[in-house]
Design a protein that fits this description.
This protein is α+β, with helices and mostly antiparallel strands and 187 residues long. It contains five helices and five strands; from the N terminus they run ααααβββββα. A hairpin with a 4-residue loop joins β2 and β3.
Length: 187
């Protein structure tokens, strides 16, 4: 008899059971569908209500921190910009010392540079090598040209210098001078 009951159970398990409720058309939602729909409706509302409050809390916390920082200190004034240097000051305080340092790093210790009006002149190698940089105006951004000569022979060629640069800070002028001396194979 045990064999008969196990055989009937195995037959029942092998036969697929048809769910009659699934084949009928549904007109009423089940209890779980009703609960999940209600949850969906309430969850977004809860999110939208808490999000602005969270944002307000964050912004008020930031305001409180900044207020705490400024309470102990006097209101800070913005740094006043340093007055712009004149052309001569920039050349004498920034370009000439930096160029001399760059030459010394490359083994040239006798570079002498002077500014005469808008012409920056340099001599080294016991005066055998000379170069002049001409500025059209008293501005680093003005049109520039360069001449160079050896052994005191008058310069025969005038070349443009830094023609592609709109901005010309002192460090860039120094870089171009070094670059031009390398191109002449003087360094």
């Amino acid at each position: 008899m045990a064999d008969e009951s196990t055989a009937k159970a195995s037959q029942a398990a092998s036969k697929p059971e048809i769910d009659k409720s699934a084949t009928e058309t549904k007109t009423q939602p089940t209890e779980t569908e009703t609960k999940s729909a209600a949850d969906k409706e309430t969850k977004p509302a809860a999110k939208t209500e808490t999000q602005p409050a969270a944002k307000a809390t964050k912004s008020s916390a930031k305001a409180a921190k900044s207020a705490a920082k400024t309470e102990g200190k006097a209101p800070s004034k913005k740094k006043a910009k340093e007055p712009e240097k004149t052309f001569a000051q920039v050349i004498e305080e920034d370009v000439i010392p930096s160029t001399i340092n760059m030459f010394e790093e490359r083994g040239v210790n006798d570079l002498r540079m002077t500014l005469n009006g808008t012409t920056l002149s340099g001599k080294f190698d016991s005066g055998k090598r000379e170069f002049d940089i001409y500025f059209s105006d008293e501005s680093l951004t003005s049109t520039k040209s360069i001449t160079y000569t050896t052994d005191g022979i008058p310069a025969s060629t005038v070349e443009s210098f830094m023609i592609d640069e709109r901005k010309a800070p002192a460090a860039l002028v120094v870089l171009y001078i070094i670059q031009r001396m390398y191109a002449q194979q003087w360094l």
